[in-house]
Design brief:
CATH architecture of the domain at 4-89 and 155-232 in chain A: 3-Layer(aba) Sandwich
Oligomer: heterodimer
GO molecular function (chain B): transmembrane transporter activity
Largest interface: A-B, 28 and 20 residues
Organism (chain B): Yoonia maricola
Number of strands of chain A: 10
Number of strands of chain B: 2
Strand order of the largest sheet of chain A: 6-7-8-3-9-10
Membrane topology (chain B): Multi-pass membrane protein
Number of domains of chain B: 1
Structural class of chain B: mainly alpha
Radius of gyration of chain A: 17 Å
Shape of chain A: globular
CATH class of the domain at 4-89 and 155-232 in chain A: Alpha Beta
GO biological process, one term (chain B): amino acid transport
CATH topology of the domain at 4-89 and 155-232 in chain A: Rossmann fold
Distance between the termini of chain A: 35 Å
Number of helices of chain B: 11
Shape of chain B: globular
Helix content of chain B: over 70%
Largest sheet of chain A: 6 strands, mixed
Family (chain B): Belongs to the binding-protein-dependent transport system permease family. LivHM subfamily.
Chain lengths: 236, 288
């Protein structure tokens, strides 16, 4: 398929002797929003670390735009246009808000996103751009983390647990902004514990269970029972 | 009274040299949590490079900086990427052991090439020139050294807080994984940090070599002074490092004023007192 942006071909991942992913196959097409769900320890974070290059894999196990990238370093992957909003925000504490955003733009890819565009989207960040990132509320920090990833003008953006640890009203705001973000021709992968939110915004879903894909399908086609079975490994 | 004032002023100026010893140490510890045991020997190495350059080209040691600064910076980059990056990880012991080994290697290589005879860089008239200020005779060289230290620290401060290179240093220092996801090649950033640190070391080495004689064994002492200045001033704070150098220098000259044998001891005692009372140093960096 020509429009395959990212393909995982039998992806394995190990931490020492412990194997976290077993032969994961996935295909992400340009313009899609995919959600990855699964219980704690199912391998979602490992999957993100593998795609971004923080964990090395064999080259052919991850393909981006038809080229093997499994062995690339994280910074090389970043330059190819894959960005991530990491779990727990992980802003740079010694950098100001604006500096955090500028670091995100370090890869120097051209595209719709710039400092002023991010400030248009999150005006509160413009007001506080000189402050240290840790002085912000959790929701505002999440805006910085999202803005920082957008500054790279990626063609694929990974969202790792963006609702974790945030107040429900803040989560609603962020999910409300999501279509605007992804609307700029970007492809997104969403790792999420909050299944109903994930399903609302995505077109396809993969469920991981103990390092294997236990379910995949269009969000409209999978039933609640399918998901429960795939999530917990319960056979009914 | 004038004698004491003189001792304090001389100590302040001496502190500039110590701050130059310390700045490189502080910088690499800040960026990559690497404690470089070979730092003092690299200062001495730079002094020998200065000696060879000024003798071979027949130029003043200050002109030799044009050669030695880029040479040490290049050496720093290669050293970091070829060797030291491989020692960095969760365990703090490997970099300590490897830089200790490097220290032994540098000392012996210098012994082989230059012998153990003391050497000195010849600074010419500047070595003995002095200015009369308010009844004090201030050496031009110590004044110049202090001025250079202030300029170097200000420059490092500017690089750290006002350039994209410095932003990269701070980002990698904060969170290596996330900085890599943002497109920073950690190995390269660390290489640049070491290059910058050893460029400062080159300046320190040449000023040291003009001020006093040196031989391959004096690196350890320079390392201690550098460490003490960093710890007194507070880790990760460059202006604090300058203050730490000044405090150490003043302690030494006042110690020497009381009894010439007390010069080094007085510096160490002040260091130990600061370490006991303010383990984070007098001016620790406040980020969070």
């Amino acid at each position: 398929m020509p429009d395959t942006l990212l393909a995982l071909n039998g992806l394995d991942a190990h931490y020492g002797d412990f194997q976290a992913l077993f032969g994961v196959d996935m295909e992400v097409h340009a313009g899609e929003v995919i959600s990855i769900i699964g219980a704690n320890g199912a391998g979602k974070t490992t999957l993100m670390r593998s795609i971004t290059g923080l964990m090395r894999n064999t080259a052919e196990q991850i393909n981006h735009l038809g080229q093997p990238i499994g062995r690339l370093r994280a910074d090389q992957v970043a330059h190819r246009g894959i960005a991530m909003v990491p779990e727990g925000r992980q802003l740079f504490p010694s950098l100001s808000i604006e500096e955090n955003l500028l670091v995100g733009g370090k890869v120097g890819r051209t595209g719709p996103w710039s400092l002023s565009k991010v400030y248009d989207m999150f005006p509160i960040l413009a007001e506080r751009k000189g402050q240290k990132s840790m002085s912000l509320s959790g929701g505002q920090q999440q805006m910085v983390a999202i803005g920082r990833a957008l500054m790279a003008n990626p063609d694929l953006i990974l969202f790792d647990e963006i609702s974790l640890g945030l107040a429900p009203v803040v989560i609603s705001d962020i999910y409300k902004a999501l279509p605007d973000i992804i609307g700029e021709g970007m492809t997104a992968m969403l790792v999420e514990q909050d299944i109903s939110r994930a399903l609302q915004v995505s077109s396809r879903v993969y469920c991981l269970q103990e390092g294997r894909v236990s379910l995949e399908g269009r969000t409209g086609d999978v039933s609640r029972d399918d998901i429960t079975a795939a999530y917990f490994g319960v056979t009914t | 009274m004038m004698e004491w004032t003189n001792a304090i002023v001389q100590g302040v100026l001496l502190g500039g040299l110590y701050a130059l010893f310390a700045a490189g140490l502080s910088l690499i510890f800040g960026v990559m949590r690497l404690v470089n045991i070979a730092h003092g020997d690299l200062i001495v190495l730079a002094a020998y490079f200065g000696l060879t350059t000024s003798v071979m080209l027949g130029v003043h040691p200050f002109a030799a900086l044009m050669v030695v600064v880029p040479l040490m910076a290049g050496l720093g980059y290669v050293l970091q990427r070829g060797l030291l990056n491989r020692t960095l990880g969760d365990d703090i012991l490997p970099p300590l052991l490897v830089t200790f080994g490097l220290s032994v290697i540098i000392q012996n290589a210098l012994l082989e090439s230059y012998s153990s005879d003391p050497q000195k860089l010849s600074g010419g008239a500047i070595e003995t020139a002095s200015l009369q200020i308010g009844g004090l005779a201030l050496g031009v060289l110590p004044l110049l050294t202090f001025g250079i230290a202030v300029v170097v620290i200000a420059l490092l401060q500017w690089i750290f807080y006002a350039t994209s290179l410095g932003r990269g240093f701070r980002a990698v220092s904060d969170n290596q994984d996330i900085a890599q996801i943002m497109g920073f090649n950690k190995a390269h950033v660390f290489g640049l940090a070491m290059a910058l640190a050893l460029a400062v070391t080159a300046i320190a080495g040449i000023l040291l070599g003009i001020r006093t004689s040196f031989d391959p064994s004096v690196g350890g002492g320079r390392l201690i002074f550098g460490f003490e200045a960093v710890i007194i001033g507070g880790l990760g704070n460059l202006w604090g490092t300058l203050a730490g150098g000044v405090i150490l220098g003043v302690a030494q000259t006042i110690g020497a004023k009381i009894d010439p044998g007390w010069q080094l001891l007085a510096g160490h005692i002040v260091f130990l007192i600061v370490l006991a009372v303010r383990p984070n140093g007098l001016f620790p960096r406040v980020d969070h």
